[in-house]
Each structure stands twice: as structure tokens, then as C-alpha cells.
Amino acid sequence: MADVLDQLQSAGGSVTLSGEQARELAKRMERLQSLARDGERYRKELCTQIQSLCMTAAPQARPDKLKAILDRLTADELGEVRKIFAGQADRKSPPAFQFDYGTGSRERTDADNSAFRMEKGVRK
Questions:
Q1: DSSP for the chain, written as a single string
Q2: Annotated domain spans of the chain
Q3: Considering the entire predicted model, what is its pTM?
Q4: Under 8 Å between Cβ of 75 and 35
Q5: Which one of 1, 33, 102, 113 is separated from 42 by 20 to 30 angstroms, measured CA to CA?
Q6: Would you say 30 and 50 are in contact if contact means Cβ atoms under 8 Å apart?
């Protein structure tokens, strides 16, 4: 493959490839297209995550402006932006308790748990 790349880079005009070189080049192109599709999908997922996090961390942000900014960033830069917004979003809405112990409060109280107690030696 290196010889094909050398030929293409040093060509002043047309380049003639052997059948084997052409097949190798086509195989390489297919692999690069597959990687490009994966990269586009990853980039799109990153942008979606960032937009969602941004709406939590900075609800005043305009989605159209945010999208325009994100479209100009590399995948590495998008990853950094995601980290920043994730931290801000976590601070703005910390995880809630799954159960409120029937009090409507997030604080644990001494609730009556007698329905869940198992008594020793009692079988039904």
C-alpha cells in the first residue's frame, strides 16, 4: 500500500495501477469509509449528549447557536465540552433518592417497616 501512496503523491499527471494495487486501494477505501461512518455517528452522539447537558446546565443557551458552535469542534474538543457541561449539570441537579420513604421528603425517617420484618421461627 505504501508504494501506491508514494505513486499517488509523487504523480505529476496520471497514474497507472496494477489490478492488485487497485484492489488493495479499493479495500483500503472501503475501510476508511467504514471508519468515517463510525466517526460521524460518534460525533453526532456527542453533540446530542452535549445539547442535552447544556439545556440542564445553561437553559438560557440557544440551541441553534450551540449547534453551530458544536459543528466547528473536533471530536476531542467535543469530549472536553461534554465533561464541562456534565459537571455543571450534576451540580445543578444532583441525583435524587429513588424512594422518599413515604414522607414526600428526601430525608430518611423512621418509617413503620413492620410489613417487611421477618420474625424468627415463623413459617407459613
A1: -HHHHHHHHH-SS-----HHHHHHHHHHHHHHHHHHHHHHHHHHHHHHHHHHHHHHH-TTS-HHHHHHHHTTS-HHHHHHHHHHHHHHHHHHSPPPPS--TTTTSSS------GGG---TT---
A2: 23-92
A3: 0.59
A4: no
A5: 1
A6: no
